[in-house]
Amino acid sequence: MRDLKIIFMGTPDFAVATLKKLVEANYNIVGVITAPDKPAGRGQKLNESAVKQYAVSQNLNVLQPTNLKNEDFLNELKALNANLQIVVAFRMLPKVVWQMPKYGTFNLHASLLPNYRGAAPINWAIINGETKTGVSTFFIDEKIDTGDMILQESIAINPEENAGSLHDTLMGIGSQLVLKTVELIQNDSVKTIPQNESSDIKTAYKLNRDNCKINWNESLDTVYNLIRGLSPYPAAWAVLKNGEDTLDIKIYKADKELIPHSKDVGTVVATKKELKVAVKNGYIIIKELKLPGKRTMDVKSLLNGYNFESNAKMM
């Protein structure tokens, strides 16, 4: 059995679950690499990453490089004498870093590779209406999420699930998959499989303002999947024209109603209890939303204090 000295690299909550599992399994974590502290809020108070907070609570050695090719950082990394690096929700590594340890550097990715390589795999699986997804571990190489696969586990996606709940499920399954992967490496029993390359591989593009905007001309399912695939973060958005007001609104929660109607696409139908938007083959029933400068609220709270004109429309 190999004597492992592990460096862990990660930043958000998604990575903490895995680091915690490694610590609880008594693996030798010789260093934790995470993002530098960032100023946040009105007071510009320095925010520590979720991984840093947990690592400090466990008295682990934390490094926070701004540049992964910096010579001082590389010397510090070498001095830790690690023989395995584990990456969960971190940035792209330069070759000089990922090829440093004797037993390699592997990554946990929240999709069934080769599909959904890239920045937002959990969101895009839901946006594209997938019925299953999963987690994969693979050895890092020069490109993004293309290395030889070690292990993979799939789960079904609940039709009402949003990105937040799927994130939490995959976080737990992923942490277990990393432990299984480490055991294989420790026992020198890894059998890798090259990823299939084909033209129909789906990509997990970085989310931006353009691809988070709702196109009400799309089908009922397409709009519904976009809303749940972007909830709770960064949230799908649309432009509401209501009388003199033109507002950018965010929609966090919705239901769908498949029903024939003759209303124009984007027409807003508001009653005392319900707010829905006409699409080609039915209605999107909005349940939770946010107006500019306001807090997120359920539709009943909104309808208590906000009036919709008869010609209100979503653009």
Keywords, please?
seven-stranded mixed beta sheet, seven-stranded antiparallel beta sheet, Rossmann fold, 315 residues, 2 domains, alpha/beta, Methionyl-tRNA Fmet Formyltransferase, Chain A, domain 2
Strand content: 25-35%
Return the CATH class of the largest domain.
Alpha Beta
Radius of gyration: 23 Å
Distance between the termini: 61 Å
**Element-level helix/strand string:** EHEEEHEHEHEEHEEHEHEEEEEEHE
Would you give the CATH topology of the largest domain? Answer: Rossmann fold
* Estimated structural class: alpha/beta
CATH architecture label of the largest domain: 3-Layer(aba) Sandwich
Largest sheet: 7 strands, mixed
- Fourth CATH level, the homologous superfamily of the largest domain: Formyl transferase, N-terminal domain
Query: So what's the overall shape?
Result: elongated
Average pLDDT rating = 96
